[in-house]
Design a protein that fits this description.
There is one protein chain. Helices cover 39% and strands 17% of the residues. It is α/β, with parallel strands linked by helices. Strands 2-1-3-4-5-10 form a 6-stranded parallel β-sheet, with helices on both faces. Strands 6-9 form a two-stranded parallel ribbon. Strands 7-12 form a two-stranded parallel ribbon. α2 packs parallel to α3 and α3 packs parallel to α4. The site of NADP nicotinamide-adenine-dinucleotide phosphate (NAP) has 27 residues, from α1 and β4.
Length: 290
Amino acid sequence: MHRAAILVTGAQGQIGFELARLLSPYGDVIATDRATLDLADPDAIVAAMRGVKPALIVNAGAYTAVDRAETEPALAHAVNGRAPGIFAEEAKRLDATLIHFSTDYVFDGTRTAPYPEDAPTGPQNVYGASKLEGERAIAAAGAHALVLRTSWVYGLRGRNFLLTIRRLAAERDELTVVADQFGVPNWSHTLAEATARIVGAGLPALAARCGLYHLSCTGKATWHEFAQAIVGPAPRPRIIPIATADYPTPARRPAYGVLGTARFEATFGFALPDWRDALANCLGGPAETT
Ligand SMILES: NC(=O)c1ccc[n+]([C@@H]2O[C@H](COP(=O)([O-])OP(=O)(O)OC[C@H]3O[C@@H](n4cnc5c(N)ncnc54)[C@H](OP(=O)(O)O)[C@@H]3O)[C@@H](O)[C@H]2O)c1
């Protein structure tokens, strides 16, 4: 039987790495990374789409260096803003479906209750603005597309908060961590499993559920609470709460980025676990291979 081609970008990234493996039951996965498909190169994207002719594109590649984006806005906008639109235009030509990931950083962070999908956006930094541009470019293309916004992604490979805290915890007696930004940590594996599950329902079912969704674990945390949960109850290192104002970064971060997931749950019929349960699974499970 003919198997659909599934083009995955960012396949060395946190979510993309997991997805490239988890999607293989549903088609022939063509896993691309920066070396094989540069998302800053529109011609390369068009050539890849027309060569592979995928039935499904999962765009997990992105410019995710939030602070560096402040000084590399052109590259961030090319990768996060323009590339998703090119995938969507090409998907429309092929009658293919696009799954794309976006971020809570499209919001301004001034709310104190979870953001629904249709809440007004207001990115506070270049990265957030570039991701919002990508969402808009996809919407403008009119393809079958699902945009999945998520937040605070971590895992046992790549660059992320969990690995940074574990490294620092091994080196220091005290860590200072921001305690006035609220969000939801999400294990890359949990996100990839949920994405594979909606793909597993079949491409026609997926195409019938196009739209913008928030895909996130439940609960809420500060970075301080997340760090404490990572190191556990041991007396050392002490995790000392600090204010955002005491930890200046090039990019401004939203103070609140909890994503309301009711639309995803109503549409697909399942919810992600509480972030603490997902973290326990991540820390207790077998090491992800690098
Ligand atoms: N990380 C988070 O906390 C977070 C939060 C909310 C939403 N998201 C979204 O979730 C999605 C997946 O993020 P992630 O956490 O898996 O990110 P990640 O681990 O940084 O993976 C992104 C991948 O994209 C690749 N990439 C960057 N520039 C590229 C280019 N020009 N051409 C080809 N590939 C390129 C990166 O390669 P290099 O390593 O070589 O740069 C990396 O392998 C993204 O859409 C992101 O915006 C992430």
